[in-house]
Amino acid sequence: MNTIVKSALLVFGGGTLFVGSFVGVALISGRPAHEIPVLKNFAHKPEPTKDPHGETAHVEPPEPEIPAAKQEDPQGSKQASPAVAQAPTAASVLGAFVMPAPFNGDELARMQSKLAIRLEEAEVAMAAAKEKQRAVDERERALLGREKELQSLKLELDTRSKELKMREMELNRDLDAGAAREEKSWAELARFFQDGEPEELAQKLITFEPANAAKILRQMDDERAIALVNALPQDQYKTFLDAYRKSVK
């Protein structure tokens, strides 16, 4: 209950203070009460007075009283500032509620100049950034084109490498086949030296080149090859023996 009473008193006191402040400021402004909003509902407009002839007389507002000091010193009234003489009393009261401007004209002009400079700098930086981005894009496109060329070259090199490997395999196969045919041919010739007298066959063997004679001897068993080599003439013995040693069976 105490809380409700306190709240009611606070609301009533605040409302009273607000109304009193509003009325006080309105009355200080010098305007009649019947011309002020809200207060005109509580104040009546004064009725014009009539002269004895029945016509409405114009009521002049009462002139403000002039202090005696000012009446006696007319020269001092002339020295007073015109702005002070003409300024209404309400201006000093209402001026308390007016916030001063944060910037004057010169400060606003300087701020506008600085903003214009910053805007120009931002535009220049933006243009430079766009130009840099354009260069980066062109570089990226060039790198992509180069990458495609390298990929194409890589594929071509891979194809050529496979072709070379296949060619090498074919050559090796042909070489192996040729070696086998040659080995077979020397084996066929060795059959002519298998049977017969070593001395007679040795005379026929020296008609071949030492390397070819060694190939023929390699197709025989060791005992028959030794017999033929020992039957060779003395001047041909060492030459054919070295060729036999260097040959592969």
Helix content: 55-70%
Shape: rod-shaped
Distance linking N and C termini: 129 Å
Structure annotation, total helices:
10
Q: Ranges with pLDDT <50 over ≥5 residues?
A: 54-59, 64-91
Q: Work out the oligomeric state of the chains in this entry.
A: single chain
Average residue-wise pLDDT: 75
Query: What is the succession of H and E elements?
Result: HHHHHHHHHH
Q: Tally the beta strands.
A: 0
Q: What is the SS-derived class?
A: mainly alpha
Rg over CA atoms, rounded to whole Å, is 66 Å
The major sheet is characterized as: none
Topology:
Blueprint: H1 2-28, H2 68-72, H3 74-79, H4 82-86, H5 89-94, H6 105-190, H7 198-205, H8 210-218, H9 222-230, H10 234-246
Detailed description of the structure:
This protein is mostly helical and 249 residues long. It is built from ten helices and no strands. The chain has helices at 2-28, 68-72, 74-79, 82-86, 89-94, 105-190, 198-205, 210-218, 222-230, 234-246. The chain is rod-shaped, with a radius of gyration of 66 Å. Mean pLDDT is 75; it is low at 54-59 and 64-91.
